[in-house]
Amino acid sequence: MSDPTNPPSPPAQPPTPPQPYGAAPTPPPAAPAAAPAPYGSAPYGAAPQAYAPPAASVGQKSFIATWLFAWLLGFWGVDRFYLGKVGTGIAKLLTLGGLGVWVLVDLILVLTGAQRDIRGQRLEGYDQHKKVAWIVTGAVIALGLVINIISGATAGARLASDAADAPTAVVAEADAAADAETAEAEAPAEPVETAQTWADEAFGTFAPVTQTGAGDTLITLPATAGIVTATHDGSANFAISVLDSANGSTGELPVNTIGAYSGTTAYGFTSYSDPATLQVTADGNWSITISPVSSAPMLASSGTGDAVFLYDGGAAGLTATHSGSANFVIIEETADAFSMGLLVNEIGAYSGTVPLSAGPSAISVQADGSWTLAVG
């Protein structure tokens, strides 16, 4: 029975048989091959092997496109949006490329091949096109520096030239100013507009026309606006109405009275259509003279009956009185669509103040009695 504490010894190797005298010695048996060392380990005393990480795979994002986006559109983060990095793309957009710093950093990363897409993959075509990209980028940067240097030198030369020419320019400006003053002094003075010249421009001018007769008649008007000076010695109705080219009323009735008449009225100031004819209604002898508005006298302070005047003063108040018993009408015509127009329209005695527009203007007074006008 075997003793468990003393295991049996391995069987002894059979003795090497004796070799014949003079024979070569038999080599000892070869040692069994050692088991391969596990990964990452090395036999004692041997140098450890270096670990080589696997190279990054190449993705589908183009190096050329990324390079151009980073260079030309980097301030808006287009390069990072293109690579799928939406978060940093938005940050780059909102900061305008980190005020330029981020743009430069991303451009360098792309040119050195360190930029990756959102999956960590290398940019497609980097090895084939990196040299061209470096050359083009460097050339453009160098060209920009040269242009800036030339521009600076040109600006400096221009400033120096301007500084040298400054005295000459001052003298030339002084000469030009003197010439302008001389020309202004020698130029003929422009004619000053008067109420008469204004009336001719606003209403036209023509030679006065005078007609006499008795009873009803029609008189062709020489212009669409003018003044009418008339007399009548009859005892019935004496009226002068204005007709257009179709013999329709223009809405104006310069004279409408009974019996004898003497006065001056205007037509064409408030007409609805262009005046062409005067229709005269009378039972006695009459005399009518049609004259341009510019022939009217300047505004009078008092008078009796109908009258037409010119006014060339400023805007003011017009204080008027009337002692008659029929219509008392004052019209101011400035040839302006927005003028005051009808100032007074009363029957009988009147006393009051109304606003008067600035001249030049024409003022028509219709009255059957004495009146006064005061501007102030």
From TrEMBL:
Regions of biased composition (Pro residues) lie at 1-31
Q: What is its main location?
A: membrane
Q: Where is this region: Disordered?
A: 1-37
**Which UniProt keywords are given for this protein, alphabetically ordered?**
Glycoprotein, Membrane, Signal, Transmembrane, Transmembrane helix
Q: Where are the transmembrane segments?
A: 89-111, 132-151
What is the topology of this protein in the membrane according to its UniProt annotation? Multi-pass membrane protein
- Tell me the compartments it is located in: Membrane
Q: State the InterPro entries in the record.
A: TM2 (IPR007829), TM2D1-3-like (IPR050932)
Domain TM2 intervals: 60-108
Task: Please give the name of this protein.
Answer: TM2 domain-containing protein
Give the organism's phylogenetic lineage. Bacteria, Bacillati, Actinomycetota, Actinomycetes, Micrococcales
